[in-house]
Design brief:
six-stranded antiparallel beta sheet; globular
Length: 78
């Protein structure tokens, strides 16, 4: 079965996926890695604000709010 790649900002509320890669550079890439967004990490979209920005994600047991433009740099599968 072929895996579908998409970005974290596309994950629906309540959905779960795994990090495939980061398409971010510099300090933002380092921040994402620091909060545990590395290849293979499971991520769940816990809640999206009414406008969809920001959204809250469960990452390694912590709830982290990410802006849409930052989440768009995280490639997920699943």
């Amino acid at each position: 079965m072929e895996q579908q790649l998409r970005t974290l900002d596309m994950l629906e509320e309540g959905g779960t996926a795994y990090v495939h890669a980061l398409q971010l550079q510099g300090a933002m890439r380092g921040r994402m890695q620091d909060i545990g967004l590395i290849a293979g990490t499971q991520v769940q979209c816990v809640r999206k604000s009414p406008s969809g920005n920001p959204a809250a994600y469960r990452i390694r047991g912590a709830i982290i709010a990410l802006r849409m433009e930052d989440a768009a740099g995280v490639i997920i599968v699943g």
